[in-house]
Design a protein that fits this description.
- This protein is mainly α.
- Helix content is 93%, strand content 0%.
């Protein structure tokens, strides 16, 4: 689990939370439907059925919001990790080219000095 990507863990936890949320919504719906079945008049039955339907709609909406939020967080994390990896690679490349340029600059004065010595010998 330590090597698992955090975005996968986020999605997995959201899925588990979604299941428990939907189970609670179904339980609440069942409770209201049971009350509707045992109600004496039509008005009470209709009210309890409406409450059951409303409980299910609200539970479903909450589950969707939870899932969307978790997906956004997981995607954001994955994107941040990818960007950080790209930045590190770019920094390594910049450092490598910088050291090559420094070595080249160090060699240039040495070459210039050798050329100057050769020129001095030719003049003498």
């Amino acid at each position: 689990m330590a090597e698992a990507d955090l975005d996968a863990v986020i999605r997995q936890l959201a899925k588990a939370q979604n299941k428990s949320l939907m189970a609670a919504a179904k339980k609440r719906q069942g409770l209201f439907m049971a009350k509707a079945a045992s109600a004496k008049d039509k008005e009470a039955k209709a009210r309890f059925k409406l409450l059951a339907q409303s409980a299910m709609l609200h539970g479903t909406a909450a589950a969707k919001r939870l899932q969307n939020s978790a997906d956004n967080a997981a995607d954001s994390y994955a994107r941040a990790v990818k960007n950080a990896a790209e930045e590190i690679a770019a920094m390594k490349l910049a450092k490598k080219t910088e050291t090559k340029a420094e070595k080249k600059v160090e060699k240039q004065p040495a070459k210039a000095a050798k050329k100057a010595k050769k020129a001095d010998k030719k003049k003498a």
